[in-house]
């Protein structure tokens, strides 16, 4: 809510509204803090109180391959945003240790103790289904920057994502792989214990069906498995054109290495976790020819991409990845939502995040609809000489 007048009466009403307890449809207390709503709009917006933004990423354990880059991308954006006039952000960053329990505790802290205006994260869809249910009932807007499974924005009206859904990525990568690899017959291997890899598996089988590609081998495994001899034995029996793999890095690295040791040379088509230089580095030669769809490429000439890459390199002495670019974009989208009505209260951010019609980001033009879902164009990349190259 933005008050356009400053008469005594209006200020009195504002004070009343600011202190009256409001309850949203979800039962959350949506009482606004008047110090978080400022004057002016857009670039002219000025808010007196420091705006607290929360973030929950997997900074340690299995998903840290993405979480560390997300932290860096987000901190770079906050630094840049704080250099602009009018709004001072304070980032409260939590590590969920790559577990659902850790993520739940971190969300609870940000929602109740830190009283943040909005939350960015978590890293994995596997945590999002629990944590977003909590954010929704508390009335705290949450913006996913890497949560790609089906059904996430549908959790509720406080839940948004700026992370390309895996459905969209695979709709681009599977037809591209079909053409590049002359893919007629494939093996599909998936982690059956993770929300994202299971969701992606369903999409993969749908896409392959639509493309008329035969699934000659269809095997699953667990997130923490280390021995894939049984599944790979099945792949060896068939002469497949590619292995489509829906897995997180922890299983991917031993699986692909064991496949190569067994003499399986078929290229890999991967899901969102493969958009990681950490994973590609760990796979070494075994990653050559790998095809993956994603939200960002270093080679894209999107608005601000060259400057983002240069600033990131200067600050961290390494190149950004897709997860860094998405987290960086997420902070700018929240800033846009706050500036729209010059109001950093939870309700206002929620109302405005779902109305980002087109924002020119390093990911390319991006929009978020009222249902919380993102629209952006996917990129498809192939690993050549150990580096991602646009296909
Ligand atoms: C998800 C993902 C992961 C691969 C992000 C790191 O896409 O969990 O949805």
From TrEMBL:
- Domain Leucine-binding protein stretches: 50-377
**Which Gene3D superfamilies does the UniProt record give?**
3.40.50.2300
Keyword terms of this UniProt record? Signal
Say which domain of life the source belongs to: Bacteria
Query: What is any Pfam family matched here?
Result: Peripla_BP_6
InterPro entries, A to Z: BCAA_transport, Leu-bd, Peripla_BP_I
Write out the similarity annotation: Belongs to the leucine-binding protein family.
This protein is called what?
ABC transporter substrate-binding protein
